[in-house]
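Now for our specimen.

. . .
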Amino acid sequence: MSDVSGTHDVVVIGGGPAGLAAAIALAEAGAKTALLARRAPYADNRTTALLGASVDFLDHLQVWPRCRDKAAPLRTMRLVDDTGRLIRAPEVRFCAEEIGLEQSASISITGP
């Protein structure tokens, strides 16, 4: 944890993918930026689906080249309601070819 004192143009709250990208973009634009996020007590092994514009944005920020080796193309995404409730949402499947794309997004695997 670091002690940040002084005046900032903007404070970004949240250290997830959106917060980190916002903080980097604002700092690159010249804003004096502070990122306020808790340090997770464990490794975050979640997977994130990134649509094309998100990948383009991260590439513009020069972040994507550092993530690319942990990513894979997303051609089909299947959403399943795993809540365990008696009445569940139906399974939904999205396919990139349905909208004329080879891939609709990239999957970025985080963690060790």
About this structure: The longest helix spans residues 17-28. The mean pLDDT is 85. The chain has three helices and seven strands.
